[in-house]
Amino acid sequence: MTPPPFAAPASTALPNSAQAPDLTPQVGEYGVPQPSAAEPVFTIRDLSVYYGGNVALKEVSLDIMPREITAIIGPSGCGKSTFIRCLNRMNDLIPGATVTGDVFYHGQNIYAPEVDPVAVRRRIGMVFQRPNPFPKSVYDNVAFGPRINGFKGDLDELVENSLRAAALWDEVKDKLKKSALNLSGGQQQRLCIARAIAVEPDVILMDEPASALDPVATVRIEDLMQELKKQYSIIIVTHNMQQAARVSERTAFLYTEVDEETSSRWGILVEHGETGLIFTRPKDKRTEDYVSGRFG
Amino acid sequence: MGRSPSPGESAGAKVSDINSARPAGRRLWTNRLASAAMLGAVLLAMIPVGLILSYIFAKGMAAMSWEFLSEPTPFSFRRAEGGFLNGLIGTGIMVGLATLVSVPLGILAAIYLQEYGRGLLANLIRFFSDVMTGVPSVFVGLFVYTAFVLPFGFGAVMGAAALAIIMLPIVVRTTEEMLKLVPLELQHGSFALGASKFQTIIRVVLPSALPGITTGVLLAVARAAGETAPLILTALGSLTITTKLIGEPISALPLLIFDGARNPFAAGQERAWAGALELLALVLIFTLLARIVASRSKISS
Amino acid sequence: MQSEARTLGDVAAGVAPAAIENRTGIGRRADSLFGLLTLVSGSLVLIVLGFMVVSTTNTALPIFSSEGLSFVTSSNWNPADGNYGILAFIYGTLVTSIIALVIAIPVSLGIALYVVEAAPRWVRGPITYAVDLLAAVPSVVYGLWGVFVLLPLFLQPAAALLSEYLGFIPLFAGPPSGLSYFGAGVVLAIMVIPIISSLSREVIRTVPDADRYAAYALGATRWEMIRGAVIPRSRAGIVGAVMLGLGRALGETIAVALLVGSATRIDPSVVRPGYSMAAVIANQFQEASGDHIRALVGVGVVLFAITILVNMAARLMVWRMVER
Ligand SMILES: Nc1ncnc2c1ncn2[C@@H]1O[C@H](COP(=O)(O)OP(=O)(O)O)[C@@H](O)[C@H]1O
Ligand SMILES: [Mg+2]
C-alpha cells in the first residue's frame, strides 16, 4: 500500500499493522489529547432519547473536541448507537424516536427548529456498523455525495482524492466502474469512508465500523482513522475496549441503568475523559469493572 | 421439507421390532392413495395446458400469414382475407397509453405507502388497492363508459383509461413489495451523506428496486393486453385502422378474437385463431421477460 | 486536493469551520412537493374506487328506483317490454362459480401439496411453470379454445353422459347442452386453478419444517403428516386463496359469455344453457340503448358489490394469516 500523498508514514506510536490487533493496551500507548485550547465541536447538554415513550438514553452531557478521536464505549444495548445518531440527527429517521436536550455544533444548536437535518448531515458524516455501499459502481458510490450536493468541479479528481484518503485507491483504481458489491467487506467499509469524505464533512461519526470485519481489515481501518483525525473530528462507537484504547484520545463510558421496580432500562453517561485515564485510573467503580473486563 | 422418506417407505430395516412398527393396512393404503391423488391432480391440470398450447399453435399457425399480420380486418366475416393489423395497432396504442399513465402513478403511490404513509390513510390505500385488483374488469369498463364515454364518445383514450385502472393496483402492490426489499441501511447511508428524502428515493431506493418493479410492470402489461370486456364498453372496436386517440372507436386484438369466436363463418374463425396465437405470443413474451428480469435481479443481489 | 488544503489552512488560521447552512428553498420545497405528489397518487386509488361506485350507481339509479327490489328478486329480463329482473344472472354467476370451485379446489390443492410436499426436486420447477402459464392466457383465448376445442371434445359428451346417467336428478336433467352452466364452470375452473394453486403453494411453503419433523417423529406417514401438520397450519391461507379464486370466477366475462349458452332464465339443470351477470353485459351491451344500458350498468353494480364483499373477506383472511 502506497501511502496517500499527503499522509505521513504510518504512525509508530500505534500498534503496528502486522501485530495481532487484540493486544492489551499498555500505558503510554493511549493517544494524547491536544492541549484543549480549542473550542469543542460538540457541546451536548442533557440529551435524552425516547423510543415510543420509553427512555433509552438519559441526560447525557458531554463536550467533544476537534481533530481528535473520541471513543464511545459501553455494554451492548446501553445506547451507544442511539447517542451517536443524535449527533447528525439520524434519529429523525426512526419512527417513534424523540430527542430532548441540546446538541451544539460549533455553538449552533442542531435541534433548533430552523435547522434543516439534511444540512446537518452534510457537515457531519457517518459510517455504519455493516458496510452499506450502494449497489452502484465504486466511482458512483464516492461521487454520490458530491453529485447530490451539486458539486461543480473535477469529479474524477475528487473521487480519486477521497479514495486515496481512505487508503483504497490502489486497490480499486482499475475497477472504478465495477460494482462496489464485488469488494471485500473491509474494502467496502473503506469505500463507505471514502464516500463520507467526498462530501468534505467536518466530523465523521463511526458506529462500530470494524465489528463486521476481520482482524486485518480492522487494523487497516484503525490506521486510516489516525490519518483522518488530522483533518476531521472523529467519534467512534465500539464495544471493543482494546480498540478504544488503541485509537482514541478521549473516551466516554455509557452504561445501562435498570429500574428495579419497573425493570425498564436506559443508558447514562458514567464518565468521560482522556483515554489513558479512563483505562488506568477510572473515577467510577462501574467504569473500572467494565474496563477490567468484569462485564465481558 | 417433506423430502425425507416417510416411515412407510424406509424399507430394509433389519431389526424386526422396527419393521413391526411399519404402517400397515389402511394407513399404508391411505398414504398411497393420497400420493396418487396429488399426482393425478397435476396430470389432470397438464391436460388443458397441453391442449390450449397445441391447438393455439396448430390452428394459429395454419391461419397465420404475412397478410394476416399486415392487413386490417375485411368488412365481411365470410371473406378469407385480411388480418388483425387494426387490432394490433389498437392494442399497442391503448396498452401503451395505459402504461404511461398507470406506471408513474402506481410507483408514486407505492412510494407513498412505503416511505411516507403511516396510519389509517396508508392502510386504507393498501387495503383498497388489494381489493381493486379483484374488481371485475367488465365493471371498470362500465365505469369508464358512464363517466367518460357518455360525454366524450368511444375511443382509444377511453379504452386506455379502463386498462390503466386495471393496471394501477397491480403496479402499486408489486412496486410496494419491491420497495420493502430495499435494505434500510442503504437509505441511511444516503441520508448520512446529506441526501434529502427525495434524492434518496430517486437515486438509491428506486434504482435498487428497479428490476422488481420492471417485473411487476411487465406482468401488468401482459394482463392489460389480454383484457377484452372493458374494451367492449370503451373502445367498442372497429374494422379499420385508426390512430385517432379520441372520438372514434378503435379495435384491439382481444376484441377481434371475441368477434371471431362468436361468428359462424370459417374465415372469421380462422382469423380468430391466428389472432389468438398473436395475442398469446405477445402476452407470453411479456411474461417471459418479467421472469428473466426477476431471476436476473435475484442473482445480482 | 485544494479543498482539503483549504480546510487544513482554515484550521491552522484558527478560522471556525463553516456553520450549518440550510439548503436553499428549492431543495427543501422539492422534498415536500414530492411527498405531496406521492400522497395525491396514493389517494387516487381511493378516489377512483369511490368515483367508480358513484358514477355507475348514478347511471343505474333510474332503473333501481323504477324496478325497486324486483331488480334482484325477479328473473324476468325483457328489455323490449322494459322488464329488468336480473335474478337469473345472479343465479348463473353463482352456479358457474360454484361448479368452477368444486372442480378447481381439489385439483389446485393436489397440485400445491404435490409440488411442496411430494414432488421430486427436478419436476417442481416445470410443474410450477406450466401451471403459471395457464394464468397468463387471456380469457378471450380461453373462450375461443373452449368453444371450438373443449366444447366438441369434452363438454358436449360430458353433458350428455351426465344427463343420461344422472338425469333423474333435476340438477342434471336434459336435454343436455355443452353450452351451459356446466360448460362455463369447467372453463372457469381451468382459469382459477393457477390462482388457487399458486397462492396455496405459497401458504403451504410457510409451514415450518419443524412441524413436519414433529409429525414424522411420531411415526406419521406422509399423508398423516400433511393432514396433521400442514393442512391445519395453512387452512386460513388456503381459504383466502379459494376466495380470491372465487372473486375471479364471479367477475370473469368473456369465456363465460362464449360458453354459458345465453339463456335469460333460471334452469335448475346445470347441463342447460343459462347466463351470468358479466356475460350479459358483454353480450348485450353493443345492441343496447337507453334503459337497457342503464339496466346493464345496474347488473354491473350488483356484480361489483358481490365481488367486493368476497374480495374483502378474502383479503382480511389472508392478512390475518400473514400477521400471525
Ligand atoms: N429503533 C428503535 N426502536 C426502539 N428501540 C430501540 C431502537 N433502537 C434502539 N432501541 C433500544 O434502545 C436501546 C439502546 O440501543 P442502541 O443504541 O442500539 O444500543 P447499543 O448501540 O449501545 O448496542 C436498546 O434497549 C434498544 O432496544
Ligand atoms: Mg449499536
Please provide a written account of the structure:
The complex is a heterotrimer of chains A (296), B (301) and C (324). By secondary structure, chain A is α/β, with parallel strands linked by helices. Helix content of chain A is 29%, strand content 24%. In chain A, the strands form two sheets. In chain A, strands 6-7-8-3-9-10 form a six-stranded mixed β-sheet, sandwiched between helices. In chain A, strands 2-1-4-5 form a four-stranded antiparallel β-sheet, with helices on one face. In chain A, α3 (138-148) crosses α4 (155-165) and α3 (138-148) runs parallel beside α6 (185-197). Chain B has a single domain (89-300), classed as MetI-like (MetI-like fold). Chain B starts with 15 loop residues before the first helix and ends with a helix. Chain C has 324 residues and is an all-alpha fold. Chain C folds into two domains: 2-58; 86-323, MetI-like (MetI-like fold, Orthogonal Bundle). In chain C, β1 and β2 form a beta hairpin. Residues 1-16 of chain C have low confidence and may be disordered. Adenosine-5'-diphosphate binds at residues 51, 56, 74, 76-82, 94 of chain A. Residues 51, 56, 74, 76-82, 94 of chain A line the site of adenosine-5'-diphosphate.
Properties at a glance:
heterotrimer; B: 301 residues; mainly alpha; MetI-like fold; 12 helices; disordered N terminus; C: 324 residues; 2 strands; 1% strand; flat; binds adenosine-5'-diphosphate; binds magnesium ion
